Amino acid sequence: MRLAKLLEGKVVADKIKETLKISVQALKHAPVMASVLVGDNSGALAYVKVQSKIAQTLGITYQLHQLPQDTSEEELIDFVLKLNADSSVNGIIVQVPLPRGIDYMKICEFILPSKDIEGMHPTNIGKVLFGKARIASCTADAVMELLNSTGADLYGKEVVIVGHSEIIGKPLAMLLLEKFATVTICHIATSKAGKLEEHVRRAEVLIVAVGQAGLIKGDWIKEGAIVVDVGINRLNDKIVGDVEFEQAAKRAAYITPVPGGVGPLTVAILMRNLVEAVKVQRT
Ligand code: NDP
């Protein structure tokens, strides 16, 4: 029997979107998001569709710029520079995955920080470090919103993050430190050292962002923990996370479903970052 309450991203996302609609209406012009898609990766195309639909419901202008698969890194940088110079564009997102040979983090360095709605420009990442971010990584922020929705006070809590990527684990650790959580970050070396289980077992809040189905065993979950599973994996034609859901849900107080947890929230936060970018550009 499942004991955990479900942490559903849609519920939080709907609240954010309600507020955003009002903020967008209050702007003089509809904010413009330029979305750059290189090639025709099916995952990226699906994500673009979702973004475009939500943008439309919020009164945001969504410009899709589709570049050929054989676009070079230099050509993509030139394209980004053109969008930077276009004063009608408020926010830029470069969709991933990018074709081989294009370094995503390098591309992010060329996006103007004031138009970087994914929060991946080094300036915006640096501001997260100083607790002064107006635009932070969408996924890291989505996790923070989910934690916030539980009403839990993170002060002094044992928080364990599994996965230390630039887009999730690292910025998330900084956002959690701002709340005075005691943060442990696990990664591949933690697993190789055979210490992943012992860290997970003591987590009052567990956030997993790896991309390996079943990496976190359900019986490792501390009784009453909050579990946020960011992972997305395709397993036997089903989408699952990194945590063994059924077993974990018997022990946790809160757990995200996959799909339906973090995913629906990231797009809402992307749109919120766009509106924030408009405000940044005004100052
Ligand atoms: P990355 O591949 O960039 O990062 C994965 C991280 O997991 C790395 O830090 C890696 O460490 C670590 N790792 C790999 N194997 C192990 C292991 N056995 N034990 C512990 N740590 C391990 O992926 P992303 O951060 O981009 O994404 C992570 C997951 O989140 C993916 O499933 C992705 O699809 C999903 N995702 C979901 C989003 C959503 O909105 N729901 C948004 C973005 C991503 P190292 O680098 O040292 O090998």
List the helices and strands and how they pair.
Layout: E1 5-6, H1 9-25, E2 32-38, H2 42-58, E3 61-67, H3 73-85, E4 91-94, H4 104-110, H5 122-129, H6 138-149, E5 158-162, H7 169-178, E6 182-186, H8 188-192, H9 196-201, E7 205-208, E8 226-229, E9 233-235, E10 238-240, H10 245-249, E11 254-255, H11 263-282
Parallel strand pairs: 1-11, 2-3, 2-4, 5-6, 5-7, 7-8, 8-11
Antiparallel strand pairs: 9-10
The chain binds NADPH dihydro-nicotinamide-adenine-dinucleotide phosphate.
NADPH dihydro-nicotinamide-adenine-dinucleotide phosphate binds next to helix 8 and helix 11.
Task: Give a brief rundown of this model.
The protein has helices at 9-25, 42-58, 73-85, 104-110, 122-129, 138-149, 169-178, 188-192, 196-201, 245-249, 263-282; strands at 5-6, 32-38, 61-67, 91-94, 158-162, 182-186, 205-208, 226-229, 233-235, 238-240, 254-255. It is α/β, with parallel strands linked by helices and 283 residues long.
